[in-house]
Design goal:
- The protein is of the alpha+beta class and 69 residues long.
- It has one domain.
- It is built from one helix and four strands.
């Protein structure tokens, strides 16, 4: 049975996207760089448009809302 959806609040803690060189880096709510391969793969699968600014990414893979920007 797949995990149930978890309610997510985009004003709460999450992963933020920041510009880095010609690409992006991702940082958690404590400002630490996210470098776990499974988390980066999930973020890549979201196909977040590069034009989005102020991107918030849900820290939970089963969150009902995955990204805003």
């Amino acid at each position: 049975m797949p995990p149930r959806l978890r309610r997510a609040d985009c004003s709460g803690p999450g992963i933020r996207r920041t510009c880095r060189g010609r690409g992006f880096a991702y940082v958690d709510e404590d400002g630490r760089r996210v470098d776990e391969p499974e988390v980066l793969a999930r973020i890549g699968e979201l196909a977040i448009p590069p034009a989005w600014q102020g991107v918030w990414i849900c820290p939970y893979p089963n969150g009902h809302l995955q990204a805003t920007g």
